[in-house]
Structure formats: structure tokens, C-alpha cells
Amino acid sequence: MSIEARDIVAWLRAAAAALEAQREQLIELDRAIGDGDHGANMDRGFKAAMQRVEALDTTDIGQILRTVAMALIATVGGAAGPLYGTFFMQMASQAAGKASLSPAEWAAALEAGLQGVMDRGRAQKGDKTMVDALAPGIEALKQALAEGADLAEALRRCAVAAEEGMRATIPLVARRGRASYLGERSAGHQDPGATSAYLILRAAAEALGAVP
Amino acid sequence: MNGSGAGRAGAGGRGPAPALVLVSHSLRLAEGLRDLVEQVAGGRVRVAVAAGSGDGDLGTDPLRIAQAVEEAGGGPVLVLMDLGSAVLSAELALDLLPEDLRRRAVLCDAPLVEGAVAAAAVLAAGGSVEEAAAEARRSLAAKQAHLGGATGPAGEAASDPGPSPGQVRLRVRVVNPMGLHARPAARFVQVAAGFDARIRVRNLTRGGQAADAASPTQLALLDARAGDELELTASGPDAAAAAAALRDLVASGFGEAGGTPDPGVAPQPAAAPVAVRAPGAAPGAAPAPGALPALDVPPELAGAARVLRGVPAAPGAAVGRLVRLAPPDEGAAGKPPLADLRSTAGDDGDALPGSPEDAWARLDAARSRAAADLAALAAAAPEGSPAAGILAAQRAMLDDPDLLARLRSAVFDRGLGAAAAWRETLDGLATRYRQAQAPMLRERAADVEDLRDRVLALLAGPGRDAPGPALVGDTGGEPAILAAGELGPAALMALGRSAAVAGLCLAGGGPTAHAVILARSLGLPVVAGLGPELLDVAPGTPVAVDGDLGLVLVEPGDTARRVLSARAEAARRAREEAEKGRHAPAVMRGGRRVQVAANAGGAGDVAQAMQQGAEGIGLLRTEFLFLDRPEPPGEEEQLAVYLEILAAADPHPVIIRTLDAGGDKPLPYLDTGPEENPFLGVRGLRLSLARPDLFRTQLRAVVRAAREAGPGRVRLMFPMVSTLEEVEAALAHLEAAGGRPPGLEVGVMVEVPAAALMAGHLARLVDFFSIGSNDLTQYVLAAERGSARLAALQDPLHPAVLALIAGVVEAAHGRGRWVGVCGEMAGDPVAAALLAGLGVDELSMVPARVPEIKALLRRLDEAEARAAAREALGLASASAVRAAALRRLPILAHPSRDAPHA
């Protein structure tokens, strides 16, 4: 049971599709507590990323993820660019030269990505950022794998935990990013970054849940 | 910029020219800013723009930033950015660059517009990128000063945009009674410097400008007093840890709460009228000079030609003749202001006119020399004396970035010579202190002037020494009583050591002046705040000082002379007796001997300890080896220091305590991280076991020192022990580090209640116990050591603490182990008597306390002390214990007057 390069591309495709579908919702969320560009930025960034990925002819997962990272860095514009760019860059360095990843390697790559985001944004859990969806999701993924769950089940639990983490950002007061300028007024709104992070993890459950 | 930039050209003359990269969400903003910058830089600085997202919208593009840095021409690059993703993108851009390029770039957290203009001005004048970054960071100050003064703190708070991304912002209230004065400020700077973070501090209660945590001066000028709320804003990689550590430092009251080692520090003087105290009573909260009601001179002190009234600043009495300090140098204090100096090349230190670079080099040399002199004075001060902290604060002032910036501008921008620049800069600083609202701050002006004169004397000539304590006035063989306007701490240290002065009168100053705190620690009576009329008294005039009442008698009457002389004499005799007997053993009446040893925090303390008659080092704190350095000390370095200390202590034993660091005493290379409650965190032995690399290195050095010094000379002690397993693990490390050579005793500190209660079991593993009473008290009573509000709970005489100590002694003696006490209580006469009564075998204290405690023990009856200790164990409170001990042991009722205040 391993994740091949084509599975990674399927995941990215699913993520791009989800971000496109949820573009307006993300814009709404970001308009409430940010500058309203998150939906458009993510959609544009992932479209650009997929264009470059589809043009690649490689089975090196590291190279695929690095391509995504560079595309996001170049095209997203807002803070999500460097943050997701860092996320995929860190994943890429974990996967460098590999044509397939074991579930444990996959989890480790995601975890490296999360660490990169936390380092780059100086964000912790509870700061009302994408970390609030990524961290519980990846934690649940690792735990499920440790308990012997198969990849599909582990990814399902990962998506569920990420969704819970995303919803849990609603009452929080933002401590990072543009929303932190609002202080207490940022409470009561779901964080757009946590939402896009959830969408990306859910895309993994959809695309990789069927990995044989 | 004025036209004097040429003077700095040398600084930027190395390598390719520096460049500025402007990062913004908006291309139009960045290009407009470039125009603005060009106006200042006039084509002398390369300016690149990296703005807008990849497709031309608002946004930032890391790739474009990376490219701009790459194309900047091979020199150093200063990157300034606007907000939010610009910061993240700039950081990511550096990550994308090859190592050599990355190292050439500096990300500057200054505001974009102000910062860019300020930085360009510095770069255009030949300054370095670092200087430009520093100037850029300061660039908002002008605007803040302009608008902040009009709107006050409320207006500032309203316009406060909140922390920007990457920043950590915390609030904390000042709890220590004296607020953020010089020593806490120096400590603050020291802690802040341990982190890779930029920290600014604002006083929310009083408003005013934000202070840079790198500048003790700016911090002190926050005028933060007890109860004020501070806001800490940190940015940079360690922002969170730095902010948390500083918050904890402030919240802990900088460890200088009332009742802690600095008993002389009075709380902020109250405006309440003062009652006349009985002679001999310790001065409590002293009134401000102006608040003194006309108090009657006691009849026995009547008959003087004149009576000057001041603030009783340090207790005691002295009778003698008045002397004055010789002016340190014709130029030092009373020279004309700088308008005249500027053209006077022949001014004290400026005899050789030269380039600004020469002046700067001379200033550098004089400042280093002054720092070394102050360090030497601090090292010579007895351990536990406040001198070290005070002199360190003065030393920190020498490197204060704010001061250096002003000095640099005086030298390079205005072409002043070394001495003139130094004088002008320090005078300006002293004036700023004098204009401060808080008396505490006004008193710091004397420290500044002390520093001014010290460096001026060094500049005046290589052969000349720092201002020596030259005294003017014929004493006719009588004791000298020094009268001065104010006195700097360093000058007083030099005087105190020369023992030429028996008492001190100050026209200015107050009970919290550093010189006064030091005088108190030296046992000198001090009256401060006597007013300018003091300086009208001619040198050589007979005077008497009553430090208890705050009186100076000019030409005192015969009775007054006799009474005050007798008091001075009694105190002197008690001190002398103790001094004379300091090398004799402390054998109690009844025959039991108590070992009296000293605590040491470095080689300097050890010599001092031996001189005071210590019978060994009961606690060598090895932290001094590990502090203030980026890397831990190696085995050879440690071995050399241990051997040096053993040689100094010869033939006595030395108890080497392994590193006692942790969240409460963080070290840069120990990634201890912030802890919610550092006193209950990974510290002491816990930390050593978590870092076996450091621990083994230290153990190897101790084992080798023990082998080399011979049996019985070295004892090894582990701090902060809670369980047997920890000790077993530590002993296993010791085996692995070379094993226990014969005659190496191994012991544990008893600080944790669990260790005290498990002493019977621990006694199987170790040879001795040493009770760390400060921490034990803190843990038993659950009262943090540094908290002023909990001072009443921090009394080690509490029966609960004594009961644990009694239990340790019983368990240890039952197995043939010995017990020492190395906390502060060992040097307190009442506590020392009770500990001796409990059967403690060794007391270890600050060196200065050794003679008196030895003298006390010699006068103490063994059986009476035992009975007093037994009674204490049955009492219900610390105050009851103290009262009962004083009642039962009459010799305690007359401790010499420099005993620590309870």
C-alpha cells in the first residue's frame, strides 16, 4: 500500500477542484476578517500550479511538490503564498527523489510541511490560522496509522479532525495574519486559512482513499 | 544629513556598495518611495523595488524579492518591507537564495517609509548596512515624539494598530517596589540579549516613547514604577520565548523584592511625615528630603554649632573631621559647556587633534578600560554585596546603543574630539535623568557622572588612572567623614576599600542612591539629602554623623561626641572581635564544632572567603562558567578553573555543585524553552540528566580535579534533586565519567520537600546533604522567591521548614552522613543559632558573614541552642520562632548592626 506520483497528482487535482468550487465561500469568509482575496488567490494559485504540474513528465514526487510550491509562491500574492509555498516546499524536500511514499512517509511529509508553516508564520495552534486545521488533521492521521488503520481510514479520520479544527476556529480571536488586526472582532468567524487547509486535506481523503 | 558624511566614508569603503531593496504590496507605493529615497541618497545608493504580486496585482512575490537581492550588485543588502505577507515573502525569498547571497541580506523590521529614508541617508554617508538598519529602526521616533507628546498614552493606544504578523505582544505589570531602575534595566537587557529577537517596551501607564530592550538608558527612562503596566512587543525568530522570559522577569520583580538579599533598599519614599526613630532603630521607608519636619535634636546630641538634617540613609554613627573629594581632574566636573570645548583642541583628552576615526578609537579604548576597571571593582566586592549588580549596571551603560549612537554622532557628524564628545553625551544623559520625575531616576544621574569622570580621566592620559579617591581636608588623625554633593558607586567602592572614610554625608542623593546602598553594605553610616549648605562646611571641620536619625552635627558638643563615639566604638569593637577571631574554629560552648564555610560564584569569591576565615567552600556555583557565552565550557577549561579554585581554597574542601540552570536561569545554548512555571520545571539535576553531554563533561572535569587535588579536597553536589532515581542516574553518569576517585564525597542539595522527606533513603546513596534553604522555603510554603507580595511567606524560620531540616539531620546522622545549609539563612544570626541547635554540621554563607557567624557560634551554648531549636519546632509561625529564639538566647538580642534585616 503506497502512494505513487500519479496519486499525488490526483490529490492536487482534487484540491484544485475543491478550491475552485469553494472559491466564493472562501472569499466570503476572508471578507469578514481579512482582505477578501483568499478565495481568488488560492484558486488562481492552484490553477497555475496544476498547469505546470500537468506539463511535467516525472515520477519524482519531490519535483511535483516543488513545482506546486514555486507556482503558489509566484502567483498567490497574499500571505497564503509564502505559507502554502513553504508547506509544499517542505513536503517536497521530504519526498525528494521518491517515486512512491509509504503512508508513514506521507504523514511525515505533511508534518514537515506543517512545521514549515508554523515556523514561517510563527503561528501556534489556537492562533486562528491554517495551523488549526492542519495540526489536528495530521495528528489524527498519524494516530490512525499508529493504531493500524489502513490509509483510506486514516485519511478519513484526518479530514474529520481537520474539519473539527476548522470549525473550532470560529470562536477564536486571531493572533496572526491580517485578521489579528481586528482583535476581538475576529471572533465569531471561521478562519479562511483553516478552511482552505481543510479542503486540501479532504481532497487527499477523496483522491487517495482509493489507493490500492 | 549635513555635510560631514565624509568622516564616515571609511566605514563603507570596504567591498561593493550596499543596496536597498523595497518590498511592498503596491508597486506604485514602492516606486514612489524610491523617488523619495533618491532625493536623500542622490544616486549614491542602489535602490531596487520588489513590489506587487506576480501578475501585477496588489501582493508580494518572494521570487521577485529574491531576484532583487540577487541583482543588488554583490554588496550587502538591506531589505525593508511593508506589512503582512511582505514579511513572510521576504523571509521566504532569503530561503530561496544561495547561502552566500542570503548572508549578505538583512531584513529590517523598521516601518517602510520612514525606515527607507533613514537607511538611505546612512548608506549614502558611507555607513554600514547594520548602522542603516539601526537608524531605520529608530526612524519612527521623531514622528512618535512629535505626535505622541500631543496625544499622550490614550491617543497612542487608540491609534495602536496591534501587533503585526510575526510579532508577539504581551503586557505585564511591574511589581518590584523600585520599578525598572538601573539594575533591573541592565538585567532586562541581559536577558533580552540572549534571544534572537527585537524587543520594544512601552509604559502603558505613563505613556511616552517606546524603549529598545537593548538600551538600558531608554528602559530606565520609561520611568516604570511599581504598578505600571508595560507592553512588550517582540519580533524575530525567538519573539515568543523572549517576550515570555521578559514578562516573567518583570513579573518576578527582578528578584529584588522586599526581604530579599538587598535589605537596604527602601520602598519608594512615601510623602508621609516621619516619626523620630529611637537611636539604633533601622531606617525603614525614608522620607524625601523636603518632607522632613523639623525634628528635635535629642538632648544628648545638643550643643553643636550647626545641625544639618537629612535622610537617614544607612545606620550607624561616626565622629571625625570633614573631608571632601579632590576634583578628579580640572576638566571633569565643572568645565564650561561644549560651545567652548569644540574649538579647544587642548581640552583634557583632546590634546592631539586627529580624525574622527582616531577620536573614536580613543573613546573605544577608554571605554574598554573603564569597563575592565568596573569589572575589577565588582569582582573585588564581597559576594552578596549589591556592588556587583550596581557596577554591572554602570558597565552596561558604557555599551548602551542609545548612548553610542549619540556619541557617534558627536564624533563623526559634528567633529568633536573624544573628551568633548564624551562629556557632552554623558552630560546630556545626566540631564535627562535629572529631569525625570521619579527620585530613583534622578539619583541615577550620579552614576552617569561617575562614569563620565572615569572615562574622561582615562582619556586625559595613558599614565593616569581612573579617578582615585583623593581626599581634601586635614583630619588631624581623626576619622574622616566624607561630604560630597553626590557620589558614584565606583568612587565609593574605591573609598570603602581604602577604609579611609568612617561616615558619609551627601548634599543630594537619597536612600536608594547606589553609593548609599553600597555604603550600607560596607557598614558606613550615611546621611543623604543634606542640601547645598553641607558643601559650605570647610574641610577639616569637626563633624559627627548620626545615620539612625539623619543628622550631621557641625562642631558637635562634648556629650554628643562621647555618645556617638561610644556607639561607633561598640559597633567597631564587635566587628573587630569577629574579624580577629575569623580564622579560629567555631566551637560552641559545650564543645561541638560547626564548620563555617562560604558560598562562591567564582574564583574571586574564593580568595575573599579564605580571607574572611571560611573553612571551605560550602557551595561553588558553577553557573559562572556557563553564563554569557554562546557555547558551554569544555572539560579542559572547567578543569583549569576548578584547579585554580582548589588552589585558592587550599587546604580546605570545595563543594562543587553541578550546573544549576533551567527555565529560571536560562542559557543560550540550552534550549530550555519557555516554561509556564520555571521553578517547577526542568532545572538543576533534571536539566543535567536531560543533557548528558553537558553533564558528563562537567563530571569528567570534577573527577579529574578531584584526582589531581588529592583525597578530601573535592566534594560533588547535585542540585534540585527530587527522587532516588535521579540520584541513581546521576551516579551512573559519574561512573561513566571516570568513576569516583577515593576521597570524593558526593552529596545532594535538599531543596525539594520530597528530597527532605526521603532523606533516609537518599542517605544510602550519598555522603552528605546540603540544604538549599531559599528554594526549600519557596517550595514548602509555595511562595515564589522573587515575589514581593509573598515576602512574608519566604521566611525560612517557618516551623514547617525547620521541621523538614530537623528530619534531614536525623535521617542523615542515623546513617553517619553529615548535613550542611548553604542558603541565605546560614548567614542570619538567629537562623544560624537554631540550625546549630538542630545539629547541622556545616553552615555556608556569603564570605562577608563568616567572621560574625563564627563569633556568634563561639558565644553560643550548645545545650541552650538545642533547647531553643526544640522549642521552635513546636511553635506555630516564623515570627513566633524568631521571638522565642531572641528571648531564649540573649546573645542574639545584640547582633552587630550589620546583621541582615529579617
Descriptive notes:
The complex is a heterodimer of chains A (212) and B (902). Chain A has nine helices and two strands, in the order E-H-H-H-H-H-E-H-H-H-H. The mean pLDDT of chain A is 91. In chain A, helix 2 crosses helix 3 and helix 8 (151-167) runs antiparallel to helix 9. The longest helix of chain A is centred in the middle third of the chain and has 19 residues, at 103-121. Chain A has one domain (3-208): DhaL domain (Serine Threonine Protein Phosphatase 5, Tetratricopeptide repeat), CATH 1.25.40.340. Chain A has 212 residues and is an all-alpha fold. In chain A, strands 1-2 form a two-stranded antiparallel ribbon. By secondary structure, chain B is α/β, with parallel strands linked by helices. Chain B folds into five domains: 3-138, Rossmann fold; 142-255, HPr-like (Histidine-containing Protein, Chain: A, 2-Layer Sandwich); 307-326 and 469-578, Phosphohistidine domain (Glucose Oxidase, domain 1), CATH 3.50.30.10; 338-460, Orthogonal Bundle (Enzyme I, Chain A, domain 2); 590-668 and 676-852, TIM Barrel (Alpha-Beta Barrel). Helix content of chain B is 44%, strand content 14%. Chain B has 34 helices and 26 strands. In chain B, the strands form four sheets. In chain B, strands 9, 10, 11, 12, 13, 14, 15, 16 and 17 form a nine-stranded mixed β-sheet that branches. In chain B, strands 19-20-21-22-23-24-25-26 form an eight-stranded parallel β-barrel, surrounded by six helices. In chain B, helix 13 (356-380) runs antiparallel to helix 14. The longest helix of chain B is centred in the middle third of the chain and has 25 residues, at 356-380. Residues 1-14, 149-161, 257-295, 329-349, 463-467 and 894-902 of chain B have low confidence and may be disordered. At the A-B interface, helix 4 and helix 5 of A face helix 4 of B.
